[in-house]
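User: What would this chain look like folded?
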Amino acid sequence: MLISFEGIDGSGKSTQLVMLREVLEDRGLTVVVIREPGATLLSESIREILLSTKQTITPTAELLLFSAARTQLVEKVIEPALNEGSIILCDRYVDSTTAYQGFGRKLDLDSVRLCNRIATRGVMPTVTFFIDVAYEQAQQRMQFDLGVGEPDRMERSGRDFFERVRYGYLQIAVDEPERFMVIDGSRDRLEIHSDIFSTLEPLL
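Assistant: Here's the prediction, encoded as structure tokens.
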């Protein structure tokens, strides 16, 4: 089973992924945790390029780089893990591209969806949790996170960009309500975790 976590930067999605991993492993389940872009040598190299503040990247080049990293991840990590019966928790997946490059960068959505279909090879999450928080709250969380250094290239995209990204995620929820779950991320992390697990438990 593939489970993805989505949200704008600073939403707390990575925290929720870790909390879910601990619960699943306590139940004796085999859990594979991955991040996007990343989890393979090639994908991590692409990640460095995408997040670097030392160069500019056009929106279309950005889309294709994310897609290249994703297809490597799907072929080398996700498909083998699914074949072995593992539960995969993915920190971002294909919906990030729709929200960030489609809505955020204003690329043609049909072109984005085509890239997504090619990159995923049809491998989609059973359920996706979108941790929804307002831009201001996400920024505050990032500022108070002592482990965060200077903002990366994506994090520097500005308020208007992230408002479009958030709108994009909410539009995905309208289009795919059976898979895409909107979770109120403004609450205490234990409340959020409880909502996530109660939604997921019938699927385990």
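The longest strand covers residues 127-132. If you want, I can go into more detail on any region.
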